[in-house]
Specification:
Length: about 475
């Protein structure tokens, strides 16, 4: 397959964006070499391609270059495996594909933010933020791979923030992506360290030059930006849209996660270890993004660094940064440490069993399978109901099944989904509305069991497969494998 089905986009550049995002989705959805992105060409496989890059709209170069994507191939994959043209339909010219050899993106993680427990890691703080839903809670924002570089990271791990004058103790709260579980896809690389009020107040005064004037999310080609580092600033300019695999700074080239819809930017000198999480400001001192990784310029139209846009990060974590003219203040007295935003409900003590059963199942479906559509959420709902109906592991109701320790990862202590689950009630998205409908149908007993009695499942991306799955036949629904007959 060498192209996409014909359709009528609004503009030529919309056609190119479609190609970029479809190829990125294929790389994200095909970790096992499957055909989950049916419209994408066969060569768009993560075993063959490390990254793709597209110039930002309105770049001053040759207009014909807008119709070119750079494809960074993995070592051992011949250039002839990728066609030179990608036909998108009959209304517009085909997109040119330029294949290159490029080192994978290398995450760059030293002080400013330091983990003080294994896995040890360090990087740069992006900004100080407050919780939109609870303004008395304050966090330092930085890259998720700095705070949780392996699956050994846990909620409440100690983290030290190093200001100009002193050190501040904080605790790890939320992060994305979940590095260490295959090659997880994510549109953000960010995490939060919670500080008590006294530490947040002192840090705001200690690092006053680190506070942005405002937040900005306007992206255009060659827009001047600068990366704030521990020992000065590094000028740069925005260049490309970028999606690709990112390797942790541990020396090997095995990808640790897949970052989608980031921005590539160019700096006169290379970024270095310790820059991960560094704030990227515009010339007007507006915070536009956070530095994530170094990339090879030959694979990204000359861009040698990648930043994550700040707006999606703030929305995901439901936080707001402190700015210079921000009227918000921080009290000077320390407050008692707050409890987790979503404490695990004790068994047998649900205040409204009927409603809580539906809410608990809906949240589980949303967290476990919101990227799988209705069919995927229905399959997970069937697993929950099968466990409930057979009293699996001694669980007698849906809430007990969902909260059964270490069974559904979204409820595990330290899982990045925990914070999102906390706010989904007040900020439901379209997927949660579908999950709620599926939960109601499942609990009412009117949901057909597409899993044929399965009580176990796992993602197709899990490597290695869990021990209980080896040698067993599975039924694949979306990106999950479902198993019948596991004790």
């Amino acid at each position: 397959m060498t192209g996409f089905p014909s359709f009528a986009p609004q503009s030529p550049h919309a056609q190119l964006r479609f190609a970029f995002h479809m190829l990125g989705s294929a790389l994200r959805l095909r970790p096992g070499g499957g055909s989950t992105a049916a419209q994408a060409p066969d060569w768009a496989d993560p075993y063959a391609v490390d990254a793709i890059a597209m110039r930002l709209a309105g770049a001053r170069e040759d207009p014909q270059m807008h119709w070119e994507l750079v494809i960074a191939l993995r070592d051992g994959i011949p250039g002839r495996a990728v066609p030179r043209l990608l036909h998108l339909g009959t209304r517009y010219p085909p997109v040119r594909l330029r294949c290159v050899r490029a080192e994978p993106a290398r995450a760059q993680a030293v002080p400013k933010v330091e983990r003080t427990s294994v896995p040890l890691e360090s990087g740069t703080a992006t900004c100080l933020v407050r919780d939109r839903l609870n303004p008395d809670r304050h966090y330092v924002l930085t890259c998720g791979h700095v705070l949780a570089s392996t699956r050994g990271a846990r909620w409440d791990d100690p983290v030290t923030i190093i200001g100009d004058a002193q050190r501040y103790d904080g605790r790890l709260r939320e992060w994305q992506p979940s590095v260490g579980t295959g090659v997880p896809p994510s549109t953000i690389d960010a995490g939060l360290v919670e500080l008590d009020t006294a530490a947040a107040t002192a840090l705001r005064g200690d690092a006053a030059g680190w506070t942005p004037q405002r937040v900005n999310d306007e992206i255009w080609p060659d827009r001047p930006v600068r990366l704030l580092r521990h020992d000065g600033e590094l000028a740069g300019s925005l260049k490309v849209h970028w999606s690709g695999k990112v390797c942790m700074p541990d020396g090997d080239d095995f990808p640790d996660y897949f970052l989608q819809d980031a921005i590539g930017y160019m700096t006169p000198e290379a970024t270095r270890a310790g820059d991960s999480g560094g704030p990227v400001w515009t010339s007007e001192d507006a915070l536009i993004g956070m530095h994530v990784a170094a990339i090879a310029p030959e694979g990204a139209f000359g861009a040698n660094a990648v930043l994550g846009r700040i707006a999606p990060v703030l929305d995901w974590f439901c936080v707001k940064p402190f700015t210079r003219d921000d009227p918000a203040t921080l009290g000077g007295l320390p407050r008692p440490a707050p409890s987790p935003r979503l404490p695990q409900a004790p068994k047998g003590q649900l205040l409204d069993p009927a409603r809580n059963e539906v809410v608990m199942l809906a949240k589980t479906l949303w967290a476990e399978a919101r990227g799988e559509g209705r069919a995927g959420m229905e399959a997970v709902a069937c697993v929950v109901m099968n466990r409930c109906n057979t009293h699996y592991r001694g669980c007698d109701n849906v809430a007990e099944v969902c909260l059964d320790p270490w069974q559904f990862s979204c409820w595990n202590p330290g899982d990045p989904n925990r914070r999102s689950l906390d706010r989904i009630d007040s900020q439901p998205d379209a997927s949660y509305q579908v999950a709620f409908q599926v939960a109601q149908q499942a609990i009412a007993g009117s949901l057909a069991d597409a899993t044929q009695g399965a009580r176990h499942y796992h993602a197709v991306t899990m490597r290695p497969f869990p021990g209980w799955a080896r040698g067993r036949t599975a039924r694949q629904i979306g990106n999950h494998l479902f198993y019948v007959g596991v004790a």
